[in-house]
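Recap slide: Iron complex transport system ATP-binding protein, sequence and predicted structure.
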Amino acid sequence: MIIDMENVSLKREGRYILNDISWQVEKQEHWALLGLNGSGKTFLLNLINAYAFPTTGRMSVLGLEFGKTYLAEKLRRRIGFVSSSVQNRLHRGDNAFEVVLSGAFASIGLYDTPTDEIREKAIGLLKELGCFDYANRLYETLSSGEKQRVLIARALMADPELLILDEPTNGLDFLAKEQLLESVERIAERENGPTIIYVTHHVDEVLPVFENTLLLKEGAVYDSGDTTRLLTREMLSSFFEVPVDISWNKRRPFMMKQ
Ligand SMILES: Nc1ncnc2c1ncn2[C@@H]1O[C@H](COP(=O)(O)OP(=O)(O)OP(=O)(O)O)[C@@H](O)[C@H]1O
């Protein structure tokens, strides 16, 4: 089991930010996590990455039981996490290749000397993510779309068992977004690849590979399970509290206000 949460709540400043969350993610199930601003997505990810601990409830991630041992470091080495907070912590002055290489050391910068094997792997990932052409460019000079691909390549360097992509298409134009989604799809289809959790506000990013979806609303699981069961007009109209229509094109859902 990749994630096993039972009745998990998280309290901050006297208020429940997450309430009675139960969620099981099995190996190689890919999940979309859908919620509006303020629904608690960031805190849920913070729990999974052991940056926060449940106030009540029981949880384990990658088989490590929270509260039993000091697990944060051990756990994070096995999780690839791509989010704007990771982006902000990167070293200024590194080029794209160095940023990817640094993923092998579970550190932000590049302190150890990479072996030839590690360099080969980084080159392979740069190619797979379509960022080889700008491998020598300074990371901070790349466009948002290019940066995201580099960050995903970086996250894959350590062969994570779980890959969490937190709103990876933020700020991307149409083309960059579609290219990124294609890359995500390829990673999801890899044999023995990581289990993916894809966090988004946007229904149209729920790719066919995300066979499961968790709808998070006001800190609670509104519903979870089979994506095609959840992404219907009835379900999403009541989830968003506004009448919406859903249309499917090439197995992707598109949502419009009625
Ligand atoms: N330190 C805190 N104490 C109390 N409440 C907080 C604290 N930090 C955030 N919140 C509240 O917790 C709720 C959940 O926040 P969270 O950042 O997880 O939402 P989110 O789903 O990630 O939103 P977004 O899509 O905007 O990133 C919000 O209502 C937020 O205002």
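The chain has a mean pLDDT of 92.
The radius of gyration is 18 Å.
(End of recap.)
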